[in-house]
Structures are given as C-alpha cells and as structure tokens.
C-alpha cells in the first residue's frame, strides 16, 4: 500500500517526532484562540487562476496546489470543495482527485512545515480539513460492484506514525474499487494484530513513513503473518521511504509496494487474484 504524502520526512528520510499529547494540547489552544492565523500567500496567483480557467479544461497546476494549501489552513473543508468543483464537474474521478490534487496539497503543507513557515498544529489541522474533503468526495463517488468473491483488506499505519491522511486515501480508493476494506488508525500494535486475527484478510496494507519505521514495520509484518487467519495473506507497503529506496521492500518482508493509491489498488488486485488462481479447486 502506498501512502501519497509522507510529508514528515526530509531528504534523509527522518522526521521531527512530536508526542500526540502535545499535538492535542496545541490544537485545543489554537481553537480557543479562534483558529489558525492566516499564512502568507503561497504564490497562488489569482491572475494565473483566471487565465487557466479561460484556457480550456481545468488543469491541476502548482498554482492550484498552492492555493488549496492556503485554503486548507485558513478556511474550512467546504472552501476546499468549492475550489475543486470545476475538476469534479469536468469528470475527474475521485481517485484522480485524491492522488493528483489532495496528495500534493498535503505534501505542500509538509514542505511548509519543514521550512518553518507553518507549525505542526497548523499542518495537522490542515490535514484534518483535507481528510474531511476526502470523505466527502468518496461519499458521493460511484463504487465498482463487488465481485462474487469480494476481496478483503485492512489498511493501517504504525503506532509511531501520527498522520493518517495518506492511509485514509488508500483505503477510500480500495473501497471505491469494490473491496471490503477496513481502516485502522491510532491503533496499538496489539490492536492491529487483534484485528488481523479476527477476520480472513486477503490483503494487509501498511504505511511506512520514514527510516526510523523500518524496524517496527519489519517486526509488525512478521507478527501479522503469524497471527493471520489466512495463511496466504498478502502484505503491501508504501510510503516516502520506500519510494526513495525500493530495495527496502525485501528487508521489510512485504510482498509488494506501490507508489500511489491508484497503483496500490491495481497491485493489490494482482496479488490477491494470483493467490486465488493458485489455490486448489
């Protein structure tokens, strides 16, 4: 499974870890203060916006990504939805909106944090708004019919990872593709393993955000295989650290990886269908 943000990592694949208790306290303080402060115009040029609108079919350019990043911080989810309405009306699919627009906006927020232009709480609140947009779009998008034998999957992130936007995006893409897919976030290792042991899963998807998560991911994957009700469960991973270094796939012990949520669905289907074809009649 591929997460498509990974903004917590810099070039070395490390990240600035902040305890969840500090995040919650900071968010509460921001809300009591009346919301986040406006940030600088991120280079989103209104003239460029108008020119692009007159040029023909809507296109996703950096100007739109920058503008939506600002709106995610300054505004609300419905403000973001209004800004992308032209793309949806033009027929852009929900998965494409997720991967080609929302994911780059999330990465942009992360870049601004790395550059100290936003604080961690502002980024977290921006991602919350993007996740609201994600759910809203997915809730109105057409779903593929489930096959006679539905494919099942569980998607999660390591307990050490505090941001669930990427794995939520992957989960929604699998649901839209007709999978019986579950999303597990803010879970302990024990809760993850209990969920795996409780049902017959075809696919287990795990986000790996940075280098410091390689060891915990490797350990969790071994445990997943040992407790899974399905001895042939397939495991897919993704994340910025794997995108930078695909050779880590074998080290982690997963069966496959994908670079984005759309690719993850295709890879997941191939993995599961291959197991079913090989099974005795």
Structure commentary:
With 281 residues, the protein is α/β, with parallel strands linked by helices. Helices cover 55% and strands 8% of the residues. It is built from 13 helices and five strands. Helix 8 links the parallel strand 1 and strand 2. It starts with 19 loop residues before the first helix and ends with a helix. Residues 150-281 form the B12-binding domain.
What is the element string, with H for helices and E for strands?
HHHHHHHEHEHEHEHHEH
Radius of gyration: 19 Å
Q: Kindly, what is the distance between the CA atoms of the first and last residues, rounded to a whole number of angstroms?
A: 29 Å
CATH architecture of the largest domain: 3-Layer(aba) Sandwich
Tell me the count of domains.
2
> Can you give the mean pLDDT?
83
Helix content: 40-55%
Oligomer: single chain
Q: Which topology of the largest domain does CATH recognise?
A: Rossmann fold
CATH class of the largest domain reads Alpha Beta
- General form: globular
* Helix/strand/pairing category: alpha/beta
| Number of E strands | 5
Number of helices: 13
CATH homologous superfamily placement of the largest domain:
Cobalamin-binding domain
Task: Let me know the largest β-sheet.
Answer: 5 strands, parallel
Keywords:
five-stranded parallel sheet; 55% helix; single chain; Methyltransferase, Methionine Synthase (B12-binding Domains), Chain A, domain 1; 2 domains; Rossmann fold; alpha/beta; disordered N terminus; 281 residues
């Amino acid at each position: 499974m591929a997460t498509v943000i990974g903004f917590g990592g810099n070039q070395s694949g490390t990240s600035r870890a902040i305890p969840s208790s500090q995040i919650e306290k900071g968010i509460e303080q921001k809300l009591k203060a009346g919301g986040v402060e406006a940030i600088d115009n991120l280079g989103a040029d209104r003239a460029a916006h108008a020119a692009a609108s007159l040029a023909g079919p809507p296109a996703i350019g950096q100007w739109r990504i920058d503008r939506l990043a600002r709106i995610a911080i300054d505004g609300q989810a419905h403000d973001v939805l209004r800004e992308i309405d032209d793309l949806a009306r033009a027929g852009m699919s929900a998965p494409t909106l997720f991967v080609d627009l929302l994911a780059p906006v999330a990465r942009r927020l992360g870049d601004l944090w790395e550059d100290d232009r936003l604080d961690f709480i502002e980024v977290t609140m921006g991602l919350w708004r993007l996740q609201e947009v994600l759910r809203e779009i997915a809730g109105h998008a057409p779903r593929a019919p489930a096959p006679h034998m539905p494919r099942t999957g569980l998607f999660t992130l390591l307990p050490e990872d505090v941001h669930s936007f990427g794995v939520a995006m992957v989960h929604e893409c699998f649901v839209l593709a007709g999978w019986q897919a579950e999303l597990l976030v803010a879970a302990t290792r024990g809760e993850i393993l209990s969920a795996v042991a409780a049902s017959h899963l075809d696919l287990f998807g795990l986000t790996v955000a940075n280098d410091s998560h390689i060891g915990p991911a490797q350990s969790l994957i071994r445990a997943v295989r040992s407790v899974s009700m399905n001895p042939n469960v397939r495991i897919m991973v993704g994340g910025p650290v794997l995108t930078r270094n695909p050779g880590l796939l074998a080290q982690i012990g997963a069966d496959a990886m994908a670079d984005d949520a759309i690719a993850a669905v295709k890879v997941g289907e191939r993995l599961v269908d291959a197991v079913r074809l090989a099974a005795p009649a």
